[in-house]
Amino acid sequence: MIGLSTGSPSLPASIPPNENASSDVSVPGTSSGRRRKTSHLKEVPETLAMRESLRDRCAQVAAKLDRSHPMTKDEMEQISRRMLEEADLPESYLGWVMVMISSEFWADALASVPPERRLFLLPHCLKHAEGCPAEYDQFGMNCKECGACSIADFRSIAEDMGYRVLVAEGSPVVMKIIVGGYVDAVVGVACLNVLEKAIDKVLLAGIPCMAVPLLSSDCRNTKVDEPWVEQMIRTPYKPAAAKTKSYVHLMRAAGLLFEDTLFERLAPRQRESHLSGEGGNAYSPGTRMLDSTPSENGARPAVTPEQLEGVDPIAATEAIALDFLARGGKHSRPFITLAAYDAMMGGDGTGADGEDVLNRVPDAVRRAALSIETFHKASLVHDDIEDGDAFRYGQPAVHQRFGTATAINVGDYLIGLGYRLLSRNMMGDEVDAETRVDLLDSLAAAHVRLSEGQGAELLWRDAKDRRLTPLDALKIYALKTSPAFEAALYSGVRMAGDASALVDPIRKFSRNLGVAFQIINDLNDWAGDDSNKLTAGADVIGGRPTLLWALALQHLEDEDKDTLLALAEPDCELSDRERLTTVRRLYEKANVFEMSMQLIDKHQARAEQVADEIENESLRRLLYFLVDTVLERPESVGSGGDAEQPSSPAVVKIGVVAR
User: Fold this and answer.
1) For residues 102 and 210, what is the distance between their CA atoms, to the nearest angstrom?
2) Structurally, how many domains does the chain consist of?
3) I need a surface site. Which of 8, 117, 146, 575 has the fewest CB within 10 A?
4) Is the Cα torsion angle 558, 561, 563, 565 positive or negative in sign?
């Protein structure tokens, strides 16, 4: 729940090299420390008396904190360290104290949320492992009230009060339930390992959250201070106006763009399509799947060829395109556009009346936000074809369901729809010509750069020479990933007025955020991706250029380098599993996982430095929030090995003109 990481928006971990310097200078000597090991910081105080005393002390500290904005992870850590130092207590209690202070910080805000708008999150490990009758599904454990463990007891109390209850370990569905508008606060139980990361984004978004840590990190039959849990569940409802800024209303506003009524108003369908089979009548995007129970939240099945039987062939393309546009993803790009607009207009959308404020946002701004997602989804349809990826959002990709030719056409349709959302005035949706041209120019530039980056990747993939330098890899990353962040930010800022003074900062911030994000994506490839690729190491098998590959070629000895290159040859006789095992071994030998993490740290520091210099406080806080939420590092890739560690890679200034 509380990230134990260093590096702060207000206190950058390091000052990056001059952005105007030549391309491949600046070699950092040490890591920023963002990823130091935290296992030694997660000790739970041994006795109940000590835990109660420390909790009281945490409540006193929290009572003095400014509640106008959510605390950053670094601010929380600094406060917790100071408390431990003043109490002459060991650093090992840091994680536990952070959870306690955070819970006390949000206690009043959580009390202002009625129980029926709260979510209670329970861990699997409280169950009795032997003979537990509960079954698992994609949302967690379907707990039976058998009385064998405390899960059923806690659940009964919570449900009697009206809570939604979920038994899962930091499931991503938690955020979906919140953004979907079904709950406004979370109470939870988990070990410190899970609390360090499970609900991190919930807290950063400014959503009231309280937790009780388990007494150990064991995964079977663990224990918890049960009276504390019951006390937390029974937090009485005390109506009060929200005091702490929150992004939840903006997140919900981004999701609502794809709901039936609003979507139809923003992007009226040109064709009528009546789908057969499950789902039945005229297709409409964004149908809500949650009704009264969080565990019923599920992905709406993708449109199938069978459902298009009898549909006018001319209407079929629109039906497939709108179906894909509305499904999956986090809608992060529309959120960025709406949040940037709100920040430039004073940031009232993050206040207590945020929902009402955002209801008054002009449709023109919403259409700009929707267009960003439309372009993004078009690129995903085409990327899945080009990369040979079979799944997207946990379901067969568009080309797997309808064939390559149809999928290409669907992507093209989405591109056209994206431009159409911006290029035409609608009644009550007038935008001055200069603003409209600026937006179209920004999106066109982003579209061109993305295509250049993807093209460079494809040319490398199909070339005979598989050599690649880290600089080349990072240039591809800057072209492929950064333009979407830049276009989303710029669109929101420009819709609020003159954005000329922010063009350069937005460009630099987006470039570094996008590069760091893409490196993280490559690292995640070695951990698998349940939502998309479903296969670890897919980039290697698919022959895609990555920074990991480039760093390995740069740091391996000639013999190992030749071995690595041979693994990419079309006539390589090794099985996929053998290839991946060998590649991982060579990556670990070259220390590429650690060097990649160091580069993430450095590009993050660059992005934070840009944010530090933004005068508009609301926009500055948004940029910090994006850094903390977009750059979610994988827990672990590579074994670390005992091989000699090469020097840190160069932090590269990427000379890409954004507009």
Assistant:
1) 7
2) 3
3) 575
4) negative
